[in-house]
Structures are given as structure tokens and as C-alpha cells.
From TrEMBL:
PROSITE patterns: WYL
Top-level taxon of the source organism: Bacteria
Domain WYL: 687-749
Keyword Acetylation attributed: no
A Pfam match: WYL
Keywords: ATP-binding, Helicase, Hydrolase, Nucleotide-binding
Residue ranges of domain Helicase XPB/Ssl2 N-terminal in the record: 468-590
Protein name: Helicase C-terminal domain-containing protein
Alphabetized GO MF terms: helicase activity
Length: 755
């Protein structure tokens, strides 16, 4: 049966169809629509229509344009008219599927022989649906085929250009309209014939009838009915995962280095917010990475709460206490923290380095990078990759961008294709994509969350090794990722020289002294290399350890503010007489003992700079490590990403539909005696109680206006069952369920008159 309005059509839809509509267009359900009329009004608003159109693919949008070209916003049209507008080569089945999609979204309604679209669709679609101009009443009834055949070649070429592209053009010849006899240029002649319309002194428009005549069998041009092809390559999934695991380990290493570097020298926060160019370049040298990767790492560190801007008069970017928790976690857990942070990060690291509207460079960590819709854009890209078989990846990012552009051409704005490229680049750096394919940990993260993803990454990462290879040139080769304890010890006694599948460390006097300062003894170091090296320990390394250990700790300090003691009186005298001793205000208080008003850590640092090798001891004479652990800032509040809103459940959708049905019934109910106070202040409780008790006694239904605890107003038709203790308990006839209503929240009550 044909219906004349969207409201009537929605009322005739079944509950399942309305639930699907509210699920697909959640903006229609907030706040809860009082009835179907309210739902229809919202569905027809320009903002809601534009939002719904963002989810449409290119072909469905083309069908929507065809409906508008058939004037479906002012009259009913047949499906055959729409199919004819699209051209004979487009399958009728595809047109029907697209129309059904529009109907499911309430952008169109009616049967195939009487289709309509909401009027605001024309505003949301733009000025020229299908690339065709507006209709000219002067051309109605004219034989355009004959008229066009009489045109000169320059005139036909001009019209063809406008018909194939934008239907408007600029020309100074549009300044005045002259009779055909006086026309000299093609534009003037076409204006005189009515084949062009003058918009202003420099703009002309091609009428719709002329555009359709020129396009012939393709009124909508070349219709893209199917998505563009994407070239893919299938690889062994284990190869994809292991390659991605290598990237993940590199990301973890770089993040560790970031924390270490910023612990010692936290960079300043720019006056306008963000991280300065010099600091980015300095960090890039430390990480031996490009600035694009460094930007991603600092953004992840900020998003994961590993770094934060200090709340001081001169703010700096410094690691937080959360960084220490992250550092002691296992590598898969550290990766999962960064991966889930990136997935929900409401920022676009790819924008850093570009210029804003004021032609200023956008700095990393600045507010200009904040984009609340960034998480949704990332998920679209990853979910598109998830559609391929595991191990199958796209050969070209441009192909993937083209596919997503076809699926949602109105989503993403001017950065639409850039978002795809940035997402793929960042996902590869995080080990979520390799060879253009989604990895197993990434699939687990999308489907089951970070715990499952960490488990998958642990399986993909190489098994930690428990040994190293000490070389004669005092380098140490780790043939794989080291066990956490072994890795800590090797990093203490040696410096990373090169990283990769096999990490190379360099042992030096400074690194050995660092290990001794950290509380290790020469025996500990000999035992470390003896038990953990698969190659013989070079004699040069043994001599170096013994020689440095022999000198190390001869001079010991304590707090007095601080003190120094040594059994070698000559060394004590040398220290006291040195320039460093003078600066430290050292004085002798006993044989072999010096004291200073300077803190012990500063004393040790000054003496080491002067060429001495002191060490610190505790109250029991044991060596202790006074090296600064680096700046740490308490994490005031864990940064949270912009979580995507969860779609309503089926139960919630059913409740929404039920509430609308109740509103429809209430709106159609004939009301009898009514209890309500003037001025909309609500109903008098005593009179309401009396009316409800009367209805319950007589078995009559009542119409009530009700405001719930959330402030949402609704109207219901209720069959009272029990009234008392400030509560109305009644049967909602629309769902045959019993509900309870607080009497003081009832704004009005009316007896329902029999029809």
C-alpha cells in the first residue's frame, strides 16, 4: 500500500525494521523519540541525512543522486525511472539492492512503483547531483537532438566539457546576454540559444536537459557499480607474523631508549604546546630513526601514559611512574600496551610537520594533532585488511585507499586517502601489518582485546636466548632477544653498538665501571661472562675487569653530609689537595677520612670527572648504586583514548521501539477527564491518585505523561493494576508487560475514552 509521508511509512514498518534503522543510525535514538512522528522528523533533518550518507558506498550514493534527478523529493517515482537514469548497463538487481539499502536507512521509502526521498536529501547531496545542473523550463518540449546537431564544433566541444565534468564554468563572455545575431563567442551563442544559463557576470551553468542529451545512454556518466579491484599476494602466515614481531621488538627498543633519554634530559614543552623540531631531531639521532617514526613513538608514549608534561613553571616532557611499570613488563605485554593505545589514540601523528590554516608547522604532541575520529579511521583500514585470508596482503596502499574511497567516499574529508596511508605506515611500525597483510596479533586485538593479542605476539616473537657470544674485540653478540634478567645485566656492563636480529654490544672501561657502580663486583662480572658466553672469554676482558675493579672502590664515601675514606693516605692527601677537593670543601677529620658539606652523589660525580674512581658505600660498608634513576613524574591521570560508542544491544533497540509504539498509541488515544496543573507544572498528586484508583476499579485504561529519572519525557497508555504507596503499577498494552511509575513523576493523567 502506498503511503504519502515518511511518518506513515515508519508506522507501518515492523519492529525488526525499526530496530535495524535505529541500530544503523544511532543519532535517531538520542534522546529516545517520543513516537514515530518524532523519529520521522529526526530522520529527515539535514544533519542526520548527511551523517547517514557518510556510510553509503559510491554506487548507493549514485542511486540516491538518480532518485533526486527524478525529483523523488517532490513526487513519487518508479524504480524503472531510477534504473533508466543510471543507464542500461547497470543491472536492475544492483539498483534494487541499493534502493533497499536507502530504505533500510529511511533515506528513501515506499514500494518500487512509488519511491520517495526525504526533502533534505537534496541539500545534503550538494548542488549538482550526478554532476548535472538544474532543469531549465525554457527547454521543456524542445527537440534538443536537432538543436545540438546544428551547433558549431567549438560550441559542441564547450558543452561536452561541461557535461563530462562540473556543470558550471567561468567566462567573461557571460557578462551580458546578447541576441543570437549579435553573439560572437561560443558562450554568447549558447546563452542566446538557452543552452547555457547565466548565473552571474562570470559564471554559466549547463541545464540538466542538455547534459542528459549529451550523455546519451549514460545519463549518470560512468557508473561505478562495483568496488575497484585490489591486487593481493598470499604469503605464509608465520612469515608475516615473524616479520611483524621483529618490527614490534624494534618499537619496544626505541620506546625504552626514549624513556632513558628523557629521564636524563627531559625536553622543554613549547610555549604553544608540543615538542620542538630540535628535540625531535636530537631524539632521531639517539634512536637512529627518521623523524616520522620518532613522532609516532613520542605520540604513543604520551597516549600510553609513559611520558607527560610536567606541571611546573617551565614544563618539560618527562617519563611518568607508569613508565617503570611498563619497563618491567614482558615484551609482548609492552607491545600490547602500545598497540591498543595506538588503536584508540584520538590523534593523528601523520599530521605532524604539516602546516595548519595559519601556515604554522604542526608540532608533535601538540593539541593540533587531536582528531576524535582517528580511531574509527584506523579500524576501517584494519577491518578491510581483516577481510582477506590470513597471510594475504595488498600489494599497493593506493589500491586499498581506492577501495575504501569507493566504500565511503564522503568519509574522511580531504585527508581521506592520507589516513589510509598513515594507518598502514604506522601499523607496520607497530608490527600489526607486514607485507600489506594483517598479522595474527592484530586480528586478535581487533576481535578479543589486548590480552589475546599479547599471547599471539608472544608466539610470534623469537624465543628469548639465555646466552651471548663474547668476541676478542670486546664486543658481545646477542644472537636473539635476551632473557629479561640477562638483558638487564648485559645492558649494565656493555653499550649497544648496533641493533637488529642480533644485537651487538661494546664493552668499555666506562661500561665496566658503570656495572661496578651498580653494585656488581669483579667476581660477579667474571661469573656472568663465564656462564653466559658460548665462546671463550677473551683474556683482555678478564684483565680489564680485574684492573678496573682493583682501582674501583678504593675511595669510599658516606653521608656526613658526605664523607670519603681510604686506607691509602697518599690518595686521601691527593684528593684533598686537588681543585675538585677544594670545590667540594673536603677536610680531614681522621686518618684516611675526609668529610664534605656537599651531597654524596655530587661528591662522587665531581671526583670522577677529576679522574678519580670513588664508589659509594652504605652504613654497613657495602657498595651501593647512587646513579640517578632519571626524572619521574607521577601520572596525574591515565590518558584515555576516545572510545568508540558501543552500538545499542538488541534488548535496548527493542525497548526503544516499544517506547515509540507506546507514544504512537498515546497520540492516537481519545482522552477523557484529565488531571494536570496549569502552566505545565505537572499533575496534582492527590487528584492523580484518585483518577488512577478510579480507572483501576473500573478496569479502564489511562493516558499518562511521565518524566523518568533521566529527565526523558514520554507518553503511555496504561491499564492500572494497583495504585498505592506513591506507585502506579500498570500493564503496558503495547508489550503486555507490567511497569511501575512513581506518582510524583507523572505530569498528566487522562481517562481513555472508548472509540
Amino acid at each position: 500500500m502506498s503511503v504519502s509521508t515518511l511518518t506513515e511509512w515508519l508506522r507501518e514498518r515492523d519492529d525488526a525494521a525499526l530496530a535495524r534503522l535505529l541500530g544503523a543510525r544511532p543519532d535517531l535514538a538520542t534522546p529516545i523519540p517520543a513516537d514515530t512522528a518524532v523519529l520521522a522528523t529526526r530522520a529527515g533533518s539535514r544533519a542526520s541525512v548527511a551523517r547517514a550518507a557518510e556510510s553509503l558506498d559510491t554506487f548507493t550514493l549514485t542511486v540516491l543522486d538518480a532518485l533526486l534527478l527524478c525529483d523523488a523529493d517532490t513526487r513519487t517515482v518508479k524504480l524503472a525511472e531510477v534504473a533508466a537514469m543510471l543507464g542500461a548497463k547497470v543491472p536492475r538487481k544492483r539498483v534494487r539492492e541499493a534502493v533497499n539499502t536507502l530504505i533500510d536507512l529511511a533515506l528513501a521509502w515506499g514500494p518500487e512503483d512509488a519511491l520517495s526521498v526525504v526533502p533534505s536529501t537534496r541539500e545534503a547531496a550538494g548542488l549538482f547531483p550526478g554532476g548535472l545542473g538544474r532543469r531549465s523550463s525554457e527547454l521543456d518540449g524542445r527537440d534538443l537532438t536537432t538543436v545540438l546537431s546544428e551547433l558549431s564544433e567549438p560550441e559542441r566541444r564547450l558543452l561536452a566539457t561541461l557535461a563530462d565534468g562540473q556543470p558550471t564554468g567561468r567566462s567573461r563572455d557571460a557578462n551580458v546576454i546578447v541576441p543570437l545575431e549579435q553573439a560572437e563567442t561560443p558562450v554568447q551563442k549558447l546563452l542566446a540559444r538557452g543552452l547555457l544559463l547565466r548565473l552571474d557576470a562570470e559564471t554559466v551553468e549547463l541545464p540538466r536537459q542538455v547534459g542528459l542529451a549529451l550523455r546519451g545512454a549514460h545519463p549518470m556518466g560512468q557508473v561505478k557499480a562495483n568496488p575497484p579491484p585490489v591486487q593481493t599476494t598470499a604469503r605464509i602466515l608465520s612469515t608475516v607474523d615473524s616479520t611483524a614481531a621483529g618490527e614490534a621488538m624494534e618499537l619496544i627498543r626505541h620506546t625504552e631508549t626514549l624513556i632513558s633519554v628523557w629521564s636524563a634530559e627531559p625536553p622543554a614543552v613549547l610555549r604553544a604546546g608540543g615538542l620542538g623540531v630540535r628535540d625531535i631531531r636530537k631524539l632521531a639521532r639517539e634512536l637512529q630513526a627518521d623523524e616520522t617514526r620518532v613522532t609516532l613513538i613520542v605520540e604513543l608514549a604520551l597516549g600510553a601514559g609513559l611520558v607527560i608534561a610536567t606541571d611546573t613553571s617551565t614544563p618539560q616532557w618527562a617519563p611518568t611512574t607508569q613508565a617503570d611499570v611498563w619497563l618491567v613488563s614482558s615484551p609482548p605485554q609492552r607491545w600490547a600496551t602500545l598497540a591498543v593505545c595506538w588503536l584508540d589514540l584520538p590523534r593523528l601523528p601523520g599530521l605532524a610537520g604539516s602546516k595548519d590554516l595559519r601556515d604554522k608547522v604542526i608540532a608533535p604532541l601538540s593539541e593540533e594533532l587531536r582528531r576524535p575520529l582517528a580511531p574509527a579511521s584506523r579500524r576501517r583500514v584494519l577491518e578491510a585488511l581483516d577481510e582477506f585470508e590470513p597471510g594475504t596482503g595488498v600489494d599497493s596502499v593506493d589500491d586499498l585507499a581506492g577501495l575504501l574511497a569507493w566504500r565511503a567516499p564522503r568519509r574522511g574529508g580531504r585527508l581521506r586517502d592520507d589516513l589510509v596511508r598513515w594507518t598502514m605506515r604506522e601499523a607496520q611500525a607497530l608490527g600489526m601489518v607486514a607485507f600489506g597483510a594483517l598479522t595474527s596479533p592484530a586480528r586478535a586485538l581487533l576481535a578479543d582485546g589486548p590480552a589475546a593479542a599479547a599471547k599471539q605476539m608472544a608466539e610470534a616473537m623469537p624465543t628469548p636466548v639465555d646466552h651471548v657470544l663474547v668476541q676478542a674485540d670486546l664486543t658481545v653478540v646477542a644472537p636473539g632477544p635476551l632473557e629479561q634478567t640477562l638483558g638487564h645485566e648485559i645492558n649494565l656492563v656493555a653499550d649497544v653498538e648496533s641493533a637488529g636480529g642480533a644485537t651487538v654490544y661494546r664493552i668499555s672501561e666506562a661500561s665496566i665501571r658503570r656495572a661496578l657502580d651498580g653494585g656488581r663486583t669483579s667476581t660477579d662480572l667474571h661469573e656472568l661472562f663465564k656462564t653466559r658466553s658460548r665462546t671463550p672469554v677473551p683474556q683482555a676482558l678478564t684483565y680489564m675487569i680485574d684492573d678496573i675493579a682493583r682501582k674501583h672502590g678504593q675511595l669510599r664515601g658516606g653521608a656526613a653530609m658526605s664523607f670519603l675514606r681510604c686506607d691509602d693516605e697518599g690518595l686521601i692527601a691527593e684528593v684533598a689537595a686537588s681543585p675538585a677537593g677544594a670545590r667540594l670543601e673536603l677536610r680531614k677529620i681522621a686518618p684516611g677520612v675526609l668529610v664534605s658539606p656537599v651531597p654524596l652523589a655530587d661528591v662522587l660525580e665531581e671526583l670522577r670527572a677529576a679522574g678519580f674512581a670513588p664508589s659509594a658505600e652504605d652504613s654497613d660498608g657495602r657498595l651501593m648504586d647512587l646513579r640517578p634513576s632519571g626524572l619521574r613524574v607521577p601520572l596525574r591521570q591515565r590518558p584515555k583514548g576516545t572510545a568508540l560508542p558501543k552500538p545499542p544491544s538488541q534488548e535496548q533497540l527493542a525497548d526503544l521501539v516499544s517506547a515509540m509504539r507506546a507514544g504512537d498509541k498515546a497520540a492516537a488515544t481519545r482522552r477523557g477527564r484529565t488531571v494536570a496543573l496549569a502552566g505545565g507544572r505537572g499533575a496534582d498528586t492527590s487528584e492523580t491518585l484518585a483518577l488512577l484508583q478510579e480507572a483501576a476499579a473500573q478496569g479502564r485504561s489511562v493516558f499518562i505523561g511521565y518524566v523518568d529519572s533521566n529527565g526523558t519525557a514520554s507518553q503511555r497508555v496504561i491499564e492500572p493494576v494497583r495504585v498505592g504507596a506513591g506507585i502506579l503499577e500498570g500493564l503496558d498494552s503495547t508489550r503486555s508487560e507490567t511497569h511501575r511509575f512513581a506518582l510524583h513523576r507523572i505530569t498528566s493523567a487522562s481517562l481513555v475514552e472508548d472509540s
